[in-house]
Amino acid sequence: MRPEEHFVHRIGWLRAAVLGANDGIVSTASLVIGVAAAQAARPDILLAGVAGLVAGAMSMAAGEYVSVSSQADTEHADLDRERQALAENDTYERAELAQIYVKRGLTPELAKEVADQLMAHDALGAHARDELGITEIASARPLQAAFASAASFAAGAAMPLLTAALLPVSAIIPAVSAATLVFLALLGAISARTGGANMVRGAVRVAFWGALAMAATALVGRLFGTTVLG
User: Fold this and answer.
1) Would the N or C end of the chain have less CB density within 10 A of its end CB?
2) For 12, which DSSP code?
3) pLDDT band at 12 (very low <50, low <70, confident <90, very high)
């Protein structure tokens, strides 16, 4: 019998990559459509798109690094406190761990035996995993998250930008809108597949919110563009 396949080890980079790619596609497409709706010339449209790509990628990288670093700092602080508690009161920490296993369904006798054996092997690891919920798979990795987010944002942003660069100005709004919905649906399906979830649900969810963002930006561009140019 073949062992089942799990996907939880992909959570760290997958979340950052999907968020970055989705943001890149939606924000750049919305920016291009909004500027195009204001009756701007192609160079202005492309300049706005490129500026959005660069600024967005750097912003995503910085934001991911800072937020995930904060998570990592909290994890390290909790581990330091747990390490000190183990050094100062081993008996209490052993009983605390056993009580966690009792709440999960073990008998008090078996829970004590499990706690004793796990703490003999790796006391801090046992408390990190079962008391604090910190595991190697889900631990914070700031650099990985920052790189995945920035790279995926740039890749996502390049799609609507290239579409706008290759088509006549008059076709930019409908073409970028249609292409972006396709890109978003593919992103949702691929990310769902990578994470072991339903591909259709993932595609529809991502495409819906992308369409809403583009519609709102196009409306703003049309209203303000008409006001400024008129």
Assistant:
1) N
2) H
3) low
pLDDT in tens, 144-160: 888 888 898 999 899 88
Coil, helix or strand for 141?
A: coil
Higher-pLDDT residue of 158, 215: 158
11's tokens: 């959570």
Lowest mean pLDDT among 113-117, 178-182, 203-207: 203-207
Q: In this structure, what token pair is assigned to residue 181?
A: 């919905």
Distance separating alpha carbons of residues 88 and 128, to the nearest angstrom: 17
Q: Is 85 exposed, middle or buried (0-12, 13-18, 19+ CB in 10 A)?
A: middle
Question: Which two tokens mark 52?
Answer: 């959005």
Please state, in angstroms and as integers, the Cα–Cα distance from residue 72 to each residue in 69, 104, 145, 147, following that order. Answer: 5, 27, 12, 16
